[in-house]
Amino acid sequence: MKLLTSILSAKQFDRDSLLELYQLASSLEETLKTKRKLKLLDGYILASLFFEASTRTRLSFETAMHRLGGQVITAVGVQFSSLSKGESLFDTLKMIESYADVCVIRHPSQGASELAAKNISVPVINGGDGAGEHPTQALLDFYTIEKKLQLSKNKLKISFIGDNKFGRTIHSLVVLLQHFDVHLHFVNPSELSLPKKYKKILTTANVQFSESENLQTVKDSDVLYMTRIQEERFIDRSLFDRVKDSFKINLDFVEKCKKGVIVMHPLPRLSEVHSELDNSKQAVYFEQAKNGVYVRMAILLKLLKITF
Amino acid sequence: MKLLTSILSAKQFDRDSLLELYQLASSLEETLKTKRKLKLLDGYILASLFFEASTRTRLSFETAMHRLGGQVITAVGVQFSSLSKGESLFDTLKMIESYADVCVIRHPSQGASELAAKNISVPVINGGDGAGEHPTQALLDFYTIEKKLQLSKNKLKISFIGDNKFGRTIHSLVVLLQHFDVHLHFVNPSELSLPKKYKKILTTANVQFSESENLQTVKDSDVLYMTRIQEERFIDRSLFDRVKDSFKINLDFVEKCKKGVIVMHPLPRLSEVHSELDNSKQAVYFEQAKNGVYVRMAILLKLLKITF
Amino acid sequence: MKLLTSILSAKQFDRDSLLELYQLASSLEETLKTKRKLKLLDGYILASLFFEASTRTRLSFETAMHRLGGQVITAVGVQFSSLSKGESLFDTLKMIESYADVCVIRHPSQGASELAAKNISVPVINGGDGAGEHPTQALLDFYTIEKKLQLSKNKLKISFIGDNKFGRTIHSLVVLLQHFDVHLHFVNPSELSLPKKYKKILTTANVQFSESENLQTVKDSDVLYMTRIQEERFIDRSLFDRVKDSFKINLDFVEKCKKGVIVMHPLPRLSEVHSELDNSKQAVYFEQAKNGVYVRMAILLKLLKITF
To answer: Is B30 inside any structural domain?
Structure first.
């Protein structure tokens, strides 16, 4: 893998570096079956700075750090009082290098992590930046697909169902998937289709992709990647009412899909995946969340240049 | 003790399991006089999830975990943003098993901890659930009474003064005390008397109990267990004004009580226990809070099946 | 150094104890160049209680504790729910001694830390108390000046520019500087001049000091200690508009100052120090923040009577 100094975007990864990260995360997962904690990051401090709350992502990183023997300092949302006093984001972020050896930043504004990475001397992980990216979510999604269906060896049809316009986890994942032999299929109301910018990336990389508003077109998929459709995305609320039930799946639907299909979701979910699916073999969204810990452990080790 | 998988209710405990927990907590207290930290839970992670803030209970658990050598991940109140996005409590709780080895949950809704315990693979501790229970508070109250007055060997008169209707710590403690030779005496405005459900438990267990609105009836008690009376509990506020000063104690009052009486309070207190009592021998409410750490250490060890 | 039991005020320090603390912090800084963590406070718990948020100060203390091998329990602002239920500050603070071995308290009311120190059995550090003091900020400021310019060996002119009336970090620092051979120069709008109480301290200690409203008078200074001027301090807002730009510095200004001048700022800053200064040799405000970790490590060791 190229030496990573920060993880800001899915665009930093190529096929080899993805497979290398997979191997490392997989070894860590295996090791954690018999050990609760490694000592690799003993003495290291992670600054976990969530300018907007995201409990799942935050706790995933903090657990990853603890499982590696490191320590964590945390601030969430309303605790960033200096910003309300008019301090620049630059100054707020600058303090990190005084306190921590690595940091993860979640911020509502696109580019916040990049601003940090350019100006502070410790590795920065983008934990989601507004309309921007959420690369570590994409990495754990990739990890889940590779682990479940051997993405690197098989041609897979992966369907993205729901909001493909605003779903930043989808955008980051699409960028990763361009390095594999896939057919990406986007199913959404026409108002919520994948932005041109990402279609262009796929075209340039010669990745097969297709679009539909018809949920039936996903039945031959290997992966159903579900996202929630938010009412506030629609200017015309009556339109929302017309489409909202067209992109939901339940157990009956999934049982009529291709054998071995897996259902993924970045969470939180609303009703787009019926809870009756939760205990089915097809549902991997809770396991997906768990994989986040192994992948983030691997990321922390890579950034801090610690060999496992 | 029966193998505990979660601690949801005071009803899970019988006399033997209470005394066994007492022994363990007592040994831990003794050990902490010469050591600051054990390594028994090195590598374990506690998820400390307080959907409503309760700084005292939360810090007590977190200290207990640290004193056992473990680590903690925390989320409090406003940080649970996914719920405001419409995520189900089930999904929010489900994430815990990806991150932690044991969890404590404080939630405003009765049954929240039970929901977690049924659906996740790690032990759950109920840190207080709305109108439901607060079993670990009851356990530390029991510990305090046993330590101070040898509840298991003596017949004690224990008086509960204040709000016996809504005080969930009282309800949980009453359930524990049914296993001992006690006389429980409830002193409160008639609007705030112990719910029938708990009287029935006492009747069934053949526990002697009595009620009064007259504070003078507690003078022969071994324990005065005080709770605050909240104005918002009264539909008729003028009634509150009439009764509010009738259930308060001060140093003069306590000195006229039985020799050796102890004054307990789950905290926070308002004016029902005069601060002039704070440094008296009778006041054990601050020590009671301290006992919470030993009892919670014992609970963590029991749930994680670690021998001390 | 006299045995410190708590750090509440800059007034507790004399010249010798300051230099002794400097030596300790300096050794710690040196050691951290090759080690990330010491084990001196293994098993100790710091309660980090910020009744008002101050992310910088809080994370600085928490990092200091982690670098010494200790653990941290934290509560910030809105999490102190018991106070809103009417609990006294005394009761809230009293809980600390049940949970922690040392604590840092930030509170909007002057005297809060002192109240804690008088009533609990563990050392208390004042992390800033309203209009009161912020002694650890003053100690890290002192550390920075001594390290950069050898305050103890040279006569320095130190100029305080901005709000000398309400700047509690200035007040605490002025109290420390009385023990050295300095010329203190205060430059501020007349509404924001140093309170008489501090001038009296300087007079009594025979410290040379002067005042001006003219920024040009600082050009021969060794230190420019900048603070922000807050609009809300002015009853007459039009006055604020007249003075607000008179106490700002930029790169051009600093280059015309004495060779070797250093620019300090307790942060957060607004526009009083132009960001073009950030990468200059003169700007030490980010390094100043970093020094906070070493100084707070030294403070923790001193209070816990642990030899390094």
So the answer is: yes
List, for residues B20-77, the tens digit of each pLDDT value. 999 999 999 999 999 999 999 999 999 999 999 999 999 999 999 999 999 999 999 8
C197 and C212 share a domain?
yes
Of A86, A90, A95, the CB nearest to C56: A95
Chain C segment 56-115 residues within 8 A of B by beta carbon are: 71, 73-75, 78-82, 85-88, 90-92, 94-95, 97-101
In this structure, the answer to whether residues A251 and A163 fall within a common structural domain is yes
Whether B250 and B220 share a structural domain: yes
C299/C249 same-domain check? no
Q: Is C79 helix (H, G, I), strand (E, B) or coil?
A: helix
For C209-243, the DSSP string reads EEEES-GGGGTT-SEEEE-PPPGGG-SSHHHHHHH
Question: DSSP string of C257-275?
Answer: S-TT-EEE--S---SSB-G
Q: Which of B62, B228, B231, B293 to mutate to test the interface with C (most CBs of C within 10 A)?
A: B62
Domains contained in chain C, number: 2
Distance from CA of C199 to the nearest CA of B (A): 40
Residue C109 falls inside a structural domain: yes
CB of C33 within 8 Å of a chain A CB? The answer is no
Residues of A in Cβ contact (< 8 Å) with B101: 36
Residue A1 lies in a domain: no
Is the per-residue pLDDT at A1 higher than 60? no
Task: Using the predicted structure, report yes or no on whether residue C3 has a pLDDT greater than 70.
Answer: no
CATH of the domain at A70: 3.40.50.1370
Number of CB pairs, chain A paired with chain B, less than 8 A apart: 75
Please report, as a single letter, which amino acid is at residue A26.
Answer: S
Strand order in the sheet with C102-107: C71-76, C45-50, C102-107, C124-129
Q: Is residue C167 domain-shared with residue C128, that is, in the same domain? A: no
A120 near C81, Cβ under 8 Å?
Answer: no
Q: Identify which of A52, A270, A290 has the shortest CB distance to residue B98.
A: A290
The pLDDT value given to residue A77: 86
Residue A204 CB burial class (10 angstroms; 0-12, 13-18, ≥19): exposed
From chain B, pick out residues whose CB is under 8 angstroms from the CB of A286. 94, 97-98
Six token digits for residue B268: 């926070």
For residue A201, give the H/E element and its range.
helix A196-204
Residue A205 and residue A98 share a domain: no
Question: CA-to-CA distance for A288 and A192, rounded, in angstroms?
Answer: 24
Whether residue C159 sits in one domain with residue C113: no
Determine the pLDDT at residue A96.
94
Q: Cis ω on the peptide bond leading into residue A268 (within 30° of 0)?
A: yes
At which residue do the structure tokens 């049982």 appear? A255
Domain that holds residue B23: 10-134+292-303
Give how far A39 is from chain B: nearest CA, Å.
Answer: 10
Helices (H), C102-232: 112-119, 135-149, 168-177, 196-204
User: Running DSSP on this structure, what letter comes out for residue A216?
Assistant: G
Q: Do B98 and A293 touch (CB under 8 A)?
A: yes
Choose, out of A71, A92, A103, the residue to mutate when testing the contact with C (most C CBs < 10 Å): A71
C270 part of contact set with chain A, CB < 8 Å: yes
Q: Is B137 on the interface with C (CB under 8 A)?
A: no
Looking at this predicted complex, what is its ipTM? 0.95
Contact A59 B79 (CB under 8 A): no
Task: Note whether B89 and B111 are within 8 A (CB).
Answer: no
Nearest to A45 among C52, C66, C270 (CB): C66
Query: Quick check: is B1 in a domain?
Result: no
Maximum pairwise Cα distance, chain A:
57
Subunits close to C (at least 3 CB pairs below 8 A):
A, B
Question: So what's the pLDDT on residue C98?
Answer: 95
Q: Do B63 and C73 touch (CB under 8 A)?
A: yes
Statement to judge: residues B279 and B144 lie in one domain: yes
C270-C271-C273 Cα angle (round to 5)? 105
